[in-house]
Write a structure and sequence with these properties.
184 residues, alpha/beta, Rossmann fold, six-stranded mixed beta sheet, 7 helices, 6 strands, 20% strand, globular
Length: 184
């Protein structure tokens, strides 16, 4: 479990934004945040911007890793629609930056296209002093079965790791709470 089982309930149920820090340092230095489609991506980018504004010597990179496009085309048509993973990554970063209210000059965008997205992300973040990730949006059971990128980053990073989670937009129903409780 991410940051230990004591912290997990707080992270999952807090009615406000939550930020946890592992291995804090005097200055965040070069900061990277994962800019993807997860529910907490904008919150992690917002934290990165706040750190950047507090520490003038730091930099922020919004990182997005896209899968390499599959070889070949659709068998049912003669035409192929070209997929540009770099453009998709840039659009994703722009959307996250906009949601986080970051100005264009507050961050660098970095898009990587790779066959193994998970391994590439874990390797790429090791180049930075501070890694800011959004809390995983998956259930505890899914994390146990498949793992999560934020969990791997926290476990494998020697530097500062910050996990950000935004407040839940919609309250859980009794049924959702019961299912989540039974998953544990």
């Amino acid at each position: 479990m991410l940051f230990g089982s004591t912290i997990a309930p707080l992270l999952e149920r807090a009615p406000c934004d939550v930020t946890l820090v592992k291995n804090p340092s005097e200055s965040p230095g070069n900061i990277v945040t994962l800019a993807g489609t997860g529910p907490h991506a904008a919150t992690s980018a917002r934290r990165a911007g706040e750190f950047r504004r507090a520490f003038a010597d730091s930099t922020v990179t919004l990182l997005n890793v896209q899968s390499s496009p599959a070889e070949g085309g659709d068998e049912d048509t003669d035409e192929q629609t070209p997929i540009d993973p770099k453009a998709i990554g840039r659009d994703t970063i722009a959307a996250v930056a906009e949601d986080a209210e970051l100005a264009d000059d507050e961050y660098d965008a970095r898009v990587i296209v790779a066959d193994d997205v998970r391994e590439t992300l874990v390797d790429a973040v090791s180049e930075y002093d501070t890694v800011i990730v959004g809390a995983t949006g998956t259930s505890t059971v899914a994390q146990a079965l498949y793992g999560s990128i934020p969990q791997r980053i926290v476990q494998q990073s020697d530097g500062t790791v910050v996990m950000a989670r935004s407040e839940q937009c919609a309250p859980r129903t009794f049924r959702q709470a019961l299912i989540q409780r039974l998953e544990r």
